[in-house]
Amino acid sequence: MAEEKGTLSIHTENIFPIIKKFLYSDHEIFLRELVSNAVDASQKLKKLASFGECKEEVGDLKVTVSLDENAKTITISDNGIGMTADEIKKYINQIAFSGATEFLEKYKDKGEDKQIIGHFGLGFYSAFMVASKVEIVTKSFREGTEAARWICDGSTEFEISPADKATRGTDIILHVADDSKEFLDKYRLQNILDKYCKFLPVQIEFDAKVVNNPNPIWTKQPSELKDEDYINFYKELYPFTEDPLFWIHLNVDYPFNLTGILYFPKLKGEFEVQKNKIQLYSRQVFITDEVKDVVPEFLMLLHGVIDSPDIPLNVSRSYLQADSNVKKINTYITKKVADKLSELFNNDRKGFEEKWNDIGVFIKYGMISEDKFYEKAKDFCLLKNLKNEFFTVNEYKERIKDSQTDKNQDIVALYSSDPGKQDAYIQSAERKGYDVLLLDTLIDSHFIGLVERKNEKFHLKRVDADTVEKLIDKDEKLESVLSEDQQKSIKEIFEKVISKPNMTVTVESLPVDELPVSLTMPEFMRRMKDMAMGGRTGFGEFPDQFNVIVNANHKTIQKILQADGDEAKSKIAKQAFDLALLSQGMLKGNDLTSFIKRSVELTLV
Asked: Which residues of the chain does CATH 3.30.230.80 include?
């Protein structure tokens, strides 16, 4: 076979159905694209007027969307630059020729206008996703030009003829197809405009009302704005929600362009990742609320708006494409959030502490998921104790090191995940002069592991994970009032009474004012189960393992040994064990009823 070279040919008959049906995944996008084109036409006119190329008065620029249900038409009108017949042939008949790109290239020496939206030259053809026929009636702003009409039925053929239009601008008239009648509903169009065009920079009218805010606050300088402006805008984005705690105004033009407002909502200690709360815009056109690549995952807890012309979009402007700028923006936003939190902490620590219940989950999540955020956040992340006092990790280590250092010179912090349920253990710790933290959110099991990894010789143990003497082992041994034989006998009595394979009985010498029987889950086992988050790892499926700790020095244990007969011994032992279950909220149903009856009997004896 002889070597051959040539050029690839593209047949418009084949590519047109692809553009019409598959370029845009959601057909409602047609309105966004056509309104954006109309906005571009208006912005271009404003720019040309500033260059002295437009001789007539520009006046008030606006885009009007009209619906005629009887004629089955949707019309998008503007009073922008308009087109001549030759420009129609150039910009409309050449598929994928971008007039916006040509405009920016032509006037690049006079400064790029970041408000020009279009780039790919394909948006107009989205009209054919919903229209069986499309008309363009247009008149150029240039003096001495004639108005023109362009008509196409979705095939590769078109007609251009003179038109009767006295004023500059363009009307795009869509004759809606039978399979797209849903778009002949006024409320459907209103919803699309609200979604995509709410902040376009030119006034948009529909149904005789202005439907957009052309000057959202993220386009302004922070010095121009008051707190009231930020809160009102938040209400505009999220009606019927509580006021935000605070916000960050993003405004950078190098090495990329980015503006926006990020709000910290009230989380109330809940782990609420709602991925549709940050909206991504490009030149004030709504793109998506899926911003996971632009914004780190932990920042999904925030609300607000990000706008950047430098975020790479696919041809249909429906989603992001991978790009180095995305990573740079991601890093920048993380830094801005950390800097804002650090500023709040350093300038108003009391106010920061008051907000901790709302922002603590967010900060901990960020520290777990982003090393760079951790490095900044470790200086303002707070630990709260049961006395409602706040400390950074370093402050807390200093606070407890004298009283809560064990025999290995490790500092041990005790914490409660449920003070009501763990009250007996908390009181036991406090009798020893120990402090107890409150760590009761879903993310705290992961946060605890992070703190221990980052802080050598510092451990956190849940207050009910063992006896307090073992939680902070200072190698101080209490003498037992029981002989070895008596300890063995007591152990056998309890093992017989309990008779559960997931419970291990030990007899220990504890202070006389501690409970006669304590029920604990080893710290390692409990932590692994917490991190399993309801069974998403293997540990979540394991049965609970408990230690039953019998206090050899408590008078109830001596009473068991002195009881007359095995039945009497077992009854008292069962009562003491049920008290331990009750303190953990584990005594239920028939066992609880039997405990109550037995309590009455023992009380009356």
From this structure: 217-349
Using 50 as the pLDDT threshold, list the residues of the chain that sit under it.
Answer: 1, 4, 6-11, 96-101, 103-104, 107, 112-121, 269, 314-321, 534-540, 605
578 is in an annotated binding site: no
Residue 170 is labelled as binding a ligand? yes
385-415 confidence digits (pLDDT tens)? 999 999 999 999 999 999 999 999 999 999 9
Distance between CA atoms of 367 and 373, rounded to whole angstroms? 6
Is 37 annotated in a binding site? The answer is yes
Full-model pTM: 0.76
294: helix, strand or coil? coil
Classify residue 144 as left (phi > 0), alpha (psi -120 to 50) or beta.
left
* Number of neighbouring beta carbons within 10 Å of residue 502: 10
pLDDT of residue 313: 56
Would you say 98 is a known binding-site residue? yes
Q: Which part of the chain has CATH 3.30.565.10?
A: 14-210
Amino acid in the structure at residue 539 = F
For residue 316, what are its two tokens? 């249909």
pLDDT score recorded for residue 535:
43
CATH class of the 14-210 domain in this structure: alpha beta
Topology classification of domain 484-604: Four Helix Bundle (Hemerythrin (Met), subunit A) (1.20.120)
CA–CA separation, 366 and 192 (whole Å):
34
The reply, when asked if residue 99 is annotated as ligand binding, is: yes
Contact 203, 210 (CB under 8 A): yes
466 labelled binding-site residue: no
Sheet with 503-508: strands ordered across: 503-508, 546-551, 517-520
Question: Is 307 one of the annotated binding-site residues?
Answer: no
